[in-house]
Amino acid sequence: MATGMQNPRTRLTWLLIAIVGALTVSPVLMLVLGSFSEGLTAFGQFTTDKYVQAYTDPQFFEVMANTTLFVLCSSTLSTVLAVFLAYLNTRTDIPFKFLFKVISIIPMMIPHLLFSVSWALLLNPSNGLINVALMQTFALENAPFNIYSIWGMILVEGLLDLPIAYLIIAPAMASFDVALEESSRVCGASSWRTLLRVTLPVLRPAILAAFILGVVRSLASFAVPSVLGMPGRVQVLATHLYEMIATGFATDYGKAAAVGMSVLVASVTLIVVYRALTAESERFVTIAGRGFRPSVVELGRARMPLFGVVGVLSFVLIVLPVAVLLYTSFVPYSMVPSARAFSMMSLKHWHEVLGDPISLLALKNSLFLAVVGATLGVLLSVFVAYVIVKVKTRAAGVLESLSYLSFSFPGIVIGVGFMWFFVQTPLYATIWALLLGYIATYLPYGIRPMSSAFIQIHSHLEESSLVCGASPMTTMRRIIVPLLIPGIVSGWILMASMFVRELTLSVVLSRPGTEVLAVQILRFSEDGLWGRLSALGIVMIAISTTLVIAATVVGNRFRTT
Amino acid sequence: MEIRIEGVSKHYQSEGKTIKALDEVTLTIPARQIFTLLGPSGCGKTTLLRCIVGLEMPDTGEIRIGGELVWSKDKGISVPPEKRGLGMVFQTYAIWPHMTVFDNVAYPLQVRGAPKAVIRQKVADTLRFVQLEGFEQRPATKLSGGQQQRVALARALVAEPKVILFDEPLSNLDAKLREETRKELRHFLGKLQITAVYVTHDRVEALALSDSIAVMRAGRIVEVGTPQKIYFDADHRFVADFIGRANLVKARVVAHEGGHTIVDSGLGRLACQQRDFAPGSEATLCLRPEFIRLVAGAAPAAHNLVNGRIDSLTFVGESYETQIRVGDEELLAKVDPDAKLVVGDSVSFTLDPAHCLLVAV
What we know:
The complex is a heterodimer of chains A (about 550) and B (about 350).
Chain A: H1 2-35, H2 49-56, H3 58-91, H4 98-105, H5 112-123, H6 129-138, H7 150-174, H8 178-186, H9 191-202, H10 204-220, H11 223-229, H12 237-246, H13 253-285, H14 303-330, H15 339-343, H16 348-354, H17 357-390, H18 394-405, H19 411-423, H20 431-456, H21 459-467, H22 472-500, H23 504-509, H24 517-527, H25 530-560
Helix pairs in contact in A: 1-13, 1-17, 1-18, 1-19, 2-13, 3-7, 3-10, 4-14, 5-11, 5-14, 7-10, 7-11, 8-9, 10-13, 12-13, 13-19, 14-25, 16-25, 17-18, 17-20, 17-22, 17-24, 20-22, 21-22, 22-25, 24-25
Chain B: E1 3-14, E2 17-29, E3 34-38, H1 45-53, E4 60-65, E5 68-72, E6 77-78, E7 87-89, H2 101-111, H3 116-129, H4 145-157, E8 163-167, H5 175-192, E9 195-200, H6 203-209, E10 212-217, E11 220-225, H7 227-232, H8 237-243, E12 247-257, E13 260-265, E14 268-273, E15 282-287, E16 293-295, E17 305-315, E18 320-326, E19 329-335, E20 346-350, E21 357-359
Parallel strand pairs in B: 3-9, 3-10, 7-8, 8-9
Antiparallel strand pairs in B: 1-2, 1-4, 4-5, 5-6, 10-11, 12-13, 12-15, 13-14, 15-21, 16-20, 17-18, 17-20, 18-19
Helix pairs in contact in B: 2-3, 2-4, 3-4
């Protein structure tokens, strides 16, 4: 069998390397070439001017300082909160543990853009709801809070990255071998000392991995800096890039590429470190014992206050943004909730949005991209995952590295790379450019569920079907495909829900006629049209939430059988 | 159905090195026997099994199952596994998790296009045979390890294969269940009168289940024989050592007389099983611990009487395991659990020449 199947398998591997390589390497390559070119229209004329311009720009140093502060502080915030929550959930007797599961899934439902907008609605200095309420109550002259600041950005980004950090740290903490702690206690250390000297050091790889992923994500973050940073003129690299290519009259894709190069290099390096760390943390922490339950720390009197903290966090992360958007979509202009405000509620913004041809076009485009993009993306992921898991050649290893490369791509930077690429093709300014960009950037999210589905299919399951007398085709139809379906469904829904709310790549690639939901929402935000923004945002959350709930239901159904 | 394997070799490339998984294996597996391939891990036994079933392709040689040539490098014949009409029980059982017990067992009949009524009847019969009646509609994943093992067996048997192959089918069970399942398997296979090829690294399993055992090492068959032959009369030191616990003592052949081979060893002059060694040549004397029999009190002068001293005693329940020092040699022996012995006691024991096995150095 091995020799018989070698040729088609090898051919498939190389075909996939070509496709995935074209999707992921070409934007990087074009970014590099573009950074050494005069401009989109003068591609290929070698120059280092753009680097000189980009890195001698006096503004650049301020941007770098802001970026460093933003990235490090928000990652620290998310990691500290994640360790705190993970410890409470896995190791203590805190009540209502289901809340932790909710906290870890919510970001899938509330797009970062809308989360940022909801904070702007609450805490902006001119008419933020909380600010106005406080000013009225305490007769203040000035707004006490300003979300349009680096600290506001850090707070919101930290909260946004909290769930992903939690998802990395909580499993590591849950599989922690409690005997390590118990032996420390037996040696005479207090539980606080044990936590500091044993628990946290053993979890260090997982905690570091969460921190680094936070750095990568906040470095690539565009929603928070654009909604909260730009009004207060706090520039970070992502918005600095965006200004070069999207605002003003003199767009400069060469300079953007030059700046983007350093973001890309930093991001790829960090992801390499991240992958090494997660591999290490799996090796470090995983315990072999079965039916094992870590002992539970009794919180005693601290139980309810700590639960209060978790409750507030869940409220802030889940209820508040949706409530604010819903409220704003019904009131005619920004006003603190009151009897008067409720009496003035109407569907005005909803009518405006649903009658707005560009918003409808954006909705149509986003749905098209979600359905067609996720379908094509999953199809590609099935083949890639098959080769990665089942064909263990060196070429398959190359494919694996290639397909996870885009995991480290900051959307806006890779968008600039794609821009350089698509300008050379007839795909420029078409919906297909967005489609290809989406698939290339989000391919790892499709491959991951498919790989785990393939790993689950032990080769013996296939082989025993052959020995039972079934042909390879029958084996495919009756054994392999049925076992893959849960992976296919969850991969599809995951990709679709990401495409519905995609922002960072879209702001670069979207052109008149190819607007998508997130870009349209950003436009409303830039124009201060909060009512319409909220209405469209609620539509987006509804689509996204439906998809995530469907994924969970499907996932649970297949898991139990 | 007889299986004939001739000159089969198989190489693997791993990290730039070539590994010989099978090295010119020639073997005949007789019909209607339980035939075990036994050896340490990495000896090629599983590869040989997978070559027979068709999941691996050898680099050279020929394989015939019941006279039909299923693989020949030279003649370019390669019958795929699904056309070989065999049954196999995998180490992981390979029970399909998305199917019920009925569907798992019915599968080989379904892919052969058997009529529904026949399938139902045969599946019911086979499940009754493996004592899983009433489990038809159970999801396959909701079974215990032992039950999964029997589903795998039922699936392998249901289409009445010419040969059934087992790849370490008991290694995933815990010790107690393994022993029960081994007895069951022996019982099932005894009733069926089918040719079975069984791969294991567990010597007790091999001895208890098999009609014949082939001991393998480094891609080669070292020795083939009945369990008794392999255990008592192995020709090779590796086999004697691998199949059970053995004391290996250096010996020099002195003469052949009275149907025995006489050797000098660290235990003195001993009469052993007759073996074809030239007088003066070196050999290894192999003594199983259970055949070292202590003599009570002052021993009469007898053949193969050895005197020693007890160095250590370990109580293991059904017996004492003791180290007896004889000159420079240290022998492991088994002593009745009620023996009144303490460390340091002088003891005498006799060795039946029939259990003094001589193998090449």
